[in-house]
């Protein structure tokens, strides 16, 4: 009887250790997709509009998730496997831009949010299906991604980042 209790105890402890140690892997944000916003903190960007007005902005934050593990029992996270964030703003705070790229097993999301001078925000989101971890997902996106919502538009070029954005009738282009 005592031998059965010991065997049962060892079995229960082993099963508990197994389930506690089981973890889900969340991949690092794919390097091929980081190229769409190839920014580094404190990098300066200069935009010029149709009226030849200049706006200098600075990258204030760039973050990308790295590989991490969570227990299978964890009811956490927002449904995305990996994400990359960036913030751009200028000294006068009249311009603020934030961007997010996120991946899931078979989907990719690119979201940009911008505020110019007024307190009015505009949000543009692009969803694409496919395996963002395939190593070939940028072929699905192409070298240029145009995010459009109504009359507002943001043009993102792989290896360059935000090349142009239009809010209403005003077009701002990245100065080379």
Task: For the largest sheet, list the strands in their spatial order.
Answer: 8-7-6-5-3-2-12-11-10-9
CA radius of gyration:
22 Å
Secondary structural class: alpha+beta
Strand content: over 45%
Q: Choose one word for the global shape.
A: elongated
Summarize the structure.
The protein is of the alpha+beta class.
Brief descriptors of the model:
176 residues; alpha+beta; ten-stranded antiparallel beta sheet; two-stranded antiparallel sheet; 3 helices; 16% helix
Protein described:
- This protein has three helices and twelve strands, in the order αβαβββββββαββββ.
- By secondary structure, it is α+β, with helices and mostly antiparallel strands.
- It has one domain.
- The mean pLDDT is 76.
- The longest helix is centred in the first third of the chain and has 20 residues, at 2-21.
- Strands 8-7-6-5-3-2-12-11-10-9 form a ten-stranded antiparallel beta sheet, with no helix packed on it. The chain has a two-stranded antiparallel sheet with strand order 1-4.
